[in-house]
User: Fold these one by one.
Assistant:
Number 1:
Amino acid sequence: MGIVIRKPLIQEIQDDSFKNKKLQLFVLRLDLLHEYISGNKWYKLKYNLEEAQKQGKRTLLTFGGAYSNHIIATAAAAKEFGFSAIGIIRGDELKEPNERLLFAQEMGMKLLYVSRELYREKEKLMKYVNEAVDINEIYILPEGGSNDLAVKGCREILNNIDINYDIVCCACGTGTTLAGIALSLKRDRAVIGFSSLKGGAFLEKEVQNYVGMEMHNWSVETNYHFGGYAKSTSELLDFIKGFNQKHNIELDYVYTGKMMYGIFDLAKKNRFIPGSRILAIHTGGLYKNK
Ligand SMILES: *Cc1c(COP(=O)(O)O)cnc(C)c1O
């Protein structure tokens, strides 16, 4: 099972902010992998889809907020690989689904809205799920698609990269992608995760749970959340616009825009050793007008 992964597309960013510091910046364009199963989400889903198939489950069920990229990717993957899909959506005030949820629905995902209180209490939520669907039929993907099989998939993100690099940068939500990358890195390389959420402490715990205590090749930057998950500022939006104008690469304000802003800021503050080759991962997350 798989989508065809062509040779990974890597672009060098020509920017004086890096040249002047003797740094090189490259972008790995995972956003170009697939129209809807975009970026890191394919890697997170890959082995879960295989496992679901192995278990003979015909329906994927997962959880997410109204703006979750994971919901869209799961809906698209289900459609592409012949599964049914159910999305448990946080917030029963969403009587009218937004554009993204409508899109998930168009791809065949059945949406069930639950209250924020119910969504928060995982035991009660699972009881609800048990009553709402035939549990024997479904393969459950946790919220954000974060599990061991997702980490296993993310270990393949840097396969077949034919440039040299020292530091990898990625955007973080659950930290699953960061964990997979950390586990796959050769010695002398390191990965920095840029948290898109406020409060990165839980994120470090998550990553540590996956990679173990003895790995020290990863770190989390918590200063670039711009107010929290899916929040933004005019400064961030201006940066994203400027970056797109200059380098013809679109970034989103939830994940990759914050990461890229952070990379430029760390360069400005001389946090990278001169001579470093930085590989930033464009994890996707662009679903405009869909
Ligand atoms: C989901 C997502 C992430 C976060 O991935 P995690 O594995 O949850 O940390 C980063 N970037 C984009 C564009 C995403 O959609």
Number 2:
Amino acid sequence: MPEPVNVARARRETPGCANVVHLNNAGAALAPIPVLEAVVEHLRLEARLGGYEAAAARAARIDAVYPSIARLIGCRPHEVAVVESATRAWDMAFYAMRFRPGDRILTSRAEYASNVIAFLQAAGRTGARVEVVEDDEHGQLSVADLQRRLDDDVKLVAVTHVPTQSGLVNPAAEIGRLTRAAGVPYLLDACQSVGQLPVDVGEIGCDMLSATGRKFLRGPRGTGFLYVSDRLIEKLEPPFLDLHAATWTGPQTYEIRSDARRFEAWETNCAAKIGLGVAVDYALGWGIEAIEERVTALAARLRHRLARIPGVSVQDRGRRLCGIVTFTVDGVPAAEVRQQLTAAGVNTSVSAIASARYDLGARGLPAVVRASVHYYNTDEDIERLCLALDSLAAV
Ligand SMILES: *Cc1c(COP(=O)(O)O)cnc(C)c1O
């Protein structure tokens, strides 16, 4: 059993807890003081010394982000690229793949809109086809259906671990066992799982993984990272290159870096990058298993409490659930529910069909309200949300 999270300390170290009930951690979590201070300190240093000079003075701190991320996801530092968002991380991997007519890309119902838009663009350009693997009776990706579809024409399996629009945790490691056996590259969108659940690329068996800084990791906005396995790096040509990703070696020649940083650009927000490293270390300091335990338990209590409010329906499906809780209120559009909750001092968000058509479309849901908990949230926070809903549902 992991040492439980010391909630009082977590809240003391989270200034936002004094202002708001923040249940939008799947959107952007509240930054803890160490992250805030690291970012501000570097901005001040840049103002004092100059941007390049500040980067040189803090080179060791900036480089430390790679081993930190490697520790978090169980890979090696040279398999990590730090970029400005999860989408850019995912895109750099996806657009490095070469598809031909008839190639198949397998994905999940849970898939995020930006990923599907990229699949459709690539399919339109190359003649590849996109196939959605069915969900099983629990509402998670059907491993049996994936197995049926995996054959020689499949060039990529790209799925979402935890979707933006529900509490589902897809069976990432079972998917990895199948893709490994079939020798098919596996790209995992771990944007909503990293920081709230243990994510180990070795256990999962994915070849590429994308994540963001600002969600459950509590890092600064404008940060994300990509993991690419050693097995694949040299085979993936980044969709664009610069003088950091490659070296201009002669009048007509260049050489691409041999590590995952070939997916980065030279220019970067150094303050944010330092902040990301601090956020990762901070999460590791609590222990990811302790975080998962608290987040999952809080979310389960929230679902239980919501289910007892007349007119409120919990919409999460899946065998295994996480810290994202989604629901609808009879007769009240999700956007209006969110607005009322904001007025009551409770931050939530809305997942609308355009961000997850394969899933919300199939379930006939135009939108759901999303309340996503973190370990610094409390039972009182949950109660505040439910009391606000009680009065809303009673109208
Ligand atoms: C938020 C999200 C993304 C995009 O992350 P960015 O950092 O905004 O690019 C991708 N996939 C899922 C499942 C998400 O929830």
